[in-house]
Specification:
Elements (H helix, E strand, L loop, with lengths): L2 H5 L16 H4 L34 E7 L2 H9 L5 H11 L6 H10 L3 E4 L4 H7 L3 H13 L7 E3 L12 H8 L3 E3 L10 E9 L3 H12 L4 E9 L1
Parallel strand pairs: 1-6, 2-5, 5-6
Antiparallel strand pairs: 3-4
Helix pairs in contact: 4-7
The structure holds zinc ion (ZN) (2 copies).
Length: about 230
Protein backbone atom coordinates (compact mmCIF):
# COMPACT_ATOMS: atom_id res chain seq x y z
CA UNK A 1 0.00 0.00 0.00
CA UNK A 2 1.34 3.41 -0.86
CA UNK A 3 0.64 6.72 0.82
CA UNK A 4 -1.58 7.55 -2.13
CA UNK A 5 -3.97 4.81 -1.12
CA UNK A 6 -4.71 6.75 2.05
CA UNK A 7 -5.10 10.08 0.32
CA UNK A 8 -7.16 8.73 -2.54
CA UNK A 9 -8.64 5.45 -1.40
CA UNK A 10 -9.40 3.08 -4.24
CA UNK A 11 -12.89 1.78 -4.77
CA UNK A 12 -13.86 -0.95 -7.17
CA UNK A 13 -15.39 0.69 -10.24
CA UNK A 14 -17.81 -2.15 -10.52
CA UNK A 15 -19.17 -2.66 -7.01
CA UNK A 16 -17.62 0.04 -4.82
CA UNK A 17 -15.56 -2.39 -2.74
CA UNK A 18 -12.62 -0.66 -1.05
CA UNK A 19 -9.03 -1.49 -1.96
CA UNK A 20 -8.73 -1.72 -5.73
CA UNK A 21 -10.25 -0.36 -8.93
CA UNK A 22 -11.36 -3.79 -9.96
CA UNK A 23 -12.01 -6.21 -7.11
CA UNK A 24 -11.38 -9.95 -7.55
CA UNK A 25 -15.05 -10.78 -7.73
CA UNK A 26 -15.70 -8.22 -10.48
CA UNK A 27 -12.61 -9.36 -12.35
CA UNK A 28 -14.27 -12.71 -12.81
CA UNK A 29 -17.22 -11.10 -14.50
CA UNK A 30 -15.27 -9.66 -17.38
CA UNK A 31 -15.16 -12.02 -20.30
CA UNK A 32 -12.78 -11.69 -23.16
CA UNK A 33 -14.00 -12.17 -26.68
CA UNK A 34 -12.46 -15.32 -27.96
CA UNK A 35 -13.27 -14.90 -31.61
CA UNK A 36 -13.10 -11.83 -33.79
CA UNK A 37 -15.58 -11.44 -36.63
CA UNK A 38 -15.91 -9.64 -39.93
CA UNK A 39 -18.09 -6.57 -39.37
CA UNK A 40 -19.97 -7.08 -42.63
CA UNK A 41 -20.88 -10.77 -42.66
CA UNK A 42 -20.40 -11.59 -38.94
CA UNK A 43 -18.46 -14.73 -39.78
CA UNK A 44 -15.22 -15.43 -37.99
CA UNK A 45 -12.14 -13.79 -39.39
CA UNK A 46 -8.53 -13.51 -38.33
CA UNK A 47 -8.18 -10.43 -36.13
CA UNK A 48 -11.58 -9.22 -37.24
CA UNK A 49 -10.24 -8.27 -40.65
CA UNK A 50 -13.00 -7.65 -43.16
CA UNK A 51 -13.01 -10.48 -45.70
CA UNK A 52 -11.74 -9.26 -49.07
CA UNK A 53 -15.05 -10.30 -50.61
CA UNK A 54 -17.03 -8.28 -48.04
CA UNK A 55 -14.98 -5.09 -48.30
CA UNK A 56 -16.32 -2.17 -50.29
CA UNK A 57 -14.52 1.06 -51.01
CA UNK A 58 -15.49 3.13 -47.98
CA UNK A 59 -15.73 0.24 -45.55
CA UNK A 60 -13.85 -0.53 -42.38
CA UNK A 61 -10.89 -2.83 -42.94
CA UNK A 62 -11.11 -4.64 -39.64
CA UNK A 63 -12.53 -4.53 -36.11
CA UNK A 64 -11.01 -5.84 -32.91
CA UNK A 65 -13.00 -5.87 -29.66
CA UNK A 66 -11.63 -7.19 -26.41
CA UNK A 67 -14.50 -7.99 -24.05
CA UNK A 68 -18.17 -8.80 -24.00
CA UNK A 69 -20.17 -5.77 -23.04
CA UNK A 70 -22.17 -6.30 -19.87
CA UNK A 71 -23.51 -4.24 -16.98
CA UNK A 72 -20.21 -4.37 -15.15
CA UNK A 73 -18.22 -3.05 -18.06
CA UNK A 74 -20.87 -0.40 -18.58
CA UNK A 75 -20.42 0.73 -14.99
CA UNK A 76 -16.65 0.73 -15.26
CA UNK A 77 -16.69 2.87 -18.38
CA UNK A 78 -19.15 5.27 -16.77
CA UNK A 79 -17.03 5.58 -13.66
CA UNK A 80 -13.86 6.43 -15.52
CA UNK A 81 -12.62 9.82 -14.58
CA UNK A 82 -9.92 11.65 -16.35
CA UNK A 83 -7.70 12.24 -13.33
CA UNK A 84 -7.50 8.60 -12.47
CA UNK A 85 -7.80 7.07 -15.87
CA UNK A 86 -4.19 5.97 -16.29
CA UNK A 87 -4.06 4.44 -12.83
CA UNK A 88 -7.33 2.68 -13.31
CA UNK A 89 -6.40 1.22 -16.65
CA UNK A 90 -3.07 0.03 -15.44
CA UNK A 91 -4.77 -1.95 -12.74
CA UNK A 92 -7.54 -3.02 -15.02
CA UNK A 93 -5.17 -4.68 -17.47
CA UNK A 94 -3.00 -6.20 -14.79
CA UNK A 95 -6.01 -7.81 -13.24
CA UNK A 96 -7.10 -9.44 -16.46
CA UNK A 97 -5.94 -12.52 -18.19
CA UNK A 98 -3.00 -11.55 -20.43
CA UNK A 99 -4.68 -13.54 -23.18
CA UNK A 100 -7.17 -10.70 -23.40
CA UNK A 101 -4.50 -8.42 -24.77
CA UNK A 102 -3.32 -10.84 -27.44
CA UNK A 103 -5.54 -9.43 -30.19
CA UNK A 104 -4.07 -5.97 -29.77
CA UNK A 105 -0.54 -7.25 -29.79
CA UNK A 106 -1.22 -8.95 -33.14
CA UNK A 107 -3.25 -6.03 -34.39
CA UNK A 108 -0.29 -3.78 -33.74
CA UNK A 109 1.67 -5.64 -36.40
CA UNK A 110 -0.96 -4.82 -38.98
CA UNK A 111 -1.32 -1.18 -38.09
CA UNK A 112 2.34 -0.31 -37.52
CA UNK A 113 2.54 3.26 -38.74
CA UNK A 114 -0.80 4.81 -38.28
CA UNK A 115 -2.73 7.09 -36.01
CA UNK A 116 -5.37 6.53 -33.38
CA UNK A 117 -8.60 8.44 -33.72
CA UNK A 118 -11.04 8.33 -30.80
CA UNK A 119 -14.69 8.61 -31.82
CA UNK A 120 -15.58 12.13 -30.74
CA UNK A 121 -18.66 13.24 -28.83
CA UNK A 122 -20.79 16.21 -29.76
CA UNK A 123 -19.97 19.39 -27.84
CA UNK A 124 -23.19 19.12 -25.88
CA UNK A 125 -22.61 15.54 -24.88
CA UNK A 126 -19.03 16.27 -23.90
CA UNK A 127 -20.14 19.13 -21.68
CA UNK A 128 -22.80 16.94 -20.10
CA UNK A 129 -20.47 14.07 -19.37
CA UNK A 130 -17.27 15.98 -18.72
CA UNK A 131 -15.06 13.52 -20.57
CA UNK A 132 -14.97 11.42 -23.69
CA UNK A 133 -14.65 7.78 -22.70
CA UNK A 134 -13.37 6.87 -26.18
CA UNK A 135 -10.52 9.29 -25.72
CA UNK A 136 -9.54 7.82 -22.36
CA UNK A 137 -9.55 4.36 -23.81
CA UNK A 138 -7.57 5.58 -26.82
CA UNK A 139 -4.91 7.02 -24.53
CA UNK A 140 -4.50 3.69 -22.93
CA UNK A 141 -4.37 1.75 -26.18
CA UNK A 142 -1.81 4.27 -27.33
CA UNK A 143 0.64 2.80 -24.85
CA UNK A 144 0.51 -0.50 -26.67
CA UNK A 145 0.65 0.89 -30.15
CA UNK A 146 2.96 3.77 -29.61
CA UNK A 147 1.08 5.74 -32.24
CA UNK A 148 0.01 9.37 -32.13
CA UNK A 149 -3.57 10.32 -31.34
CA UNK A 150 -5.24 12.16 -34.19
CA UNK A 151 -7.99 14.72 -34.08
CA UNK A 152 -9.42 14.60 -37.59
CA UNK A 153 -13.10 14.29 -36.80
CA UNK A 154 -15.89 16.27 -35.23
CA UNK A 155 -19.20 14.84 -34.21
CA UNK A 156 -21.97 17.01 -35.47
CA UNK A 157 -24.89 15.12 -34.06
CA UNK A 158 -25.69 12.34 -31.69
CA UNK A 159 -27.05 9.24 -33.29
CA UNK A 160 -29.70 6.92 -31.97
CA UNK A 161 -29.13 3.23 -31.93
CA UNK A 162 -30.06 2.00 -35.42
CA UNK A 163 -32.04 -0.83 -33.87
CA UNK A 164 -34.47 1.68 -32.34
CA UNK A 165 -35.39 3.07 -35.72
CA UNK A 166 -38.00 1.40 -37.84
CA UNK A 167 -37.88 2.73 -41.34
CA UNK A 168 -34.96 2.66 -43.71
CA UNK A 169 -35.34 6.39 -44.21
CA UNK A 170 -35.06 7.07 -40.47
CA UNK A 171 -31.93 4.97 -40.26
CA UNK A 172 -30.38 6.77 -43.18
CA UNK A 173 -31.04 10.21 -41.74
CA UNK A 174 -29.97 9.18 -38.27
CA UNK A 175 -26.39 8.61 -39.35
CA UNK A 176 -26.03 10.90 -42.29
CA UNK A 177 -23.72 13.77 -41.52
CA UNK A 178 -22.97 12.57 -37.99
CA UNK A 179 -19.27 13.23 -38.54
CA UNK A 180 -17.25 15.68 -40.51
CA UNK A 181 -13.63 16.59 -40.89
CA UNK A 182 -12.22 19.16 -38.53
CA UNK A 183 -10.10 20.60 -41.31
CA UNK A 184 -12.24 20.58 -44.40
CA UNK A 185 -9.62 19.99 -47.05
CA UNK A 186 -7.28 17.74 -45.16
CA UNK A 187 -5.64 15.07 -47.29
CA UNK A 188 -5.47 11.71 -45.54
CA UNK A 189 -3.90 9.85 -48.47
CA UNK A 190 -1.93 6.82 -47.41
CA UNK A 191 -2.97 7.11 -43.75
CA UNK A 192 -3.81 4.12 -41.61
CA UNK A 193 -6.31 5.13 -38.98
CA UNK A 194 -7.49 3.18 -35.98
CA UNK A 195 -10.85 4.36 -34.72
CA UNK A 196 -11.27 3.78 -31.01
CA UNK A 197 -14.55 3.58 -29.15
CA UNK A 198 -15.75 2.10 -25.88
CA UNK A 199 -18.38 -0.22 -27.31
CA UNK A 200 -19.42 -1.47 -30.71
CA UNK A 201 -22.87 -2.93 -31.34
CA UNK A 202 -24.04 -2.76 -34.94
CA UNK A 203 -21.00 -0.77 -35.95
CA UNK A 204 -23.09 1.86 -37.70
CA UNK A 205 -21.34 4.74 -35.91
CA UNK A 206 -17.81 3.66 -36.79
CA UNK A 207 -18.88 2.80 -40.33
CA UNK A 208 -20.08 6.36 -40.74
CA UNK A 209 -16.84 7.78 -39.34
CA UNK A 210 -14.82 5.53 -41.64
CA UNK A 211 -16.67 6.83 -44.68
CA UNK A 212 -15.68 10.39 -43.87
CA UNK A 213 -12.04 9.40 -43.40
CA UNK A 214 -11.89 7.30 -46.53
CA UNK A 215 -13.49 10.01 -48.63
CA UNK A 216 -10.60 12.19 -47.51
CA UNK A 217 -8.20 9.59 -48.84
CA UNK A 218 -7.47 7.35 -45.84
CA UNK A 219 -5.83 4.15 -47.02
CA UNK A 220 -7.01 1.86 -44.22
CA UNK A 221 -9.47 2.40 -41.40
CA UNK A 222 -9.61 -0.09 -38.56
CA UNK A 223 -11.59 -0.07 -35.37
CA UNK A 224 -10.59 -1.06 -31.88
CA UNK A 225 -13.12 -1.17 -29.09
CA UNK A 226 -12.99 -2.17 -25.50
CA UNK A 227 -16.22 -4.09 -25.67
CA UNK A 228 -18.69 -5.64 -28.03
CA UNK A 229 -22.40 -5.37 -27.31
ZN1 LIG B 1 -16.01 -5.10 -7.48
ZN1 LIG C 1 -17.07 -11.02 -44.15
Amino acid sequence: MSILDFVFPKFCLGCGFLGSYLCPSCQKQIYRLKRQRCLYCQKASYLGLTHPGCLKKLDIDGVVSLFYYNNLLKKIIKNLKYRLATEVWKEFWQALNPEALKPIVLFKEIVREGVIQPIPLTKTKLRERGFNQAELIARYFQKFFNLPIADFLIRKKETLSQAQLKSKKERYHNLRGAFSLKEKNIDLSGQKIVLVDDVITTGSTVKEAAKVLKRAGAFKVYTLTLAKG
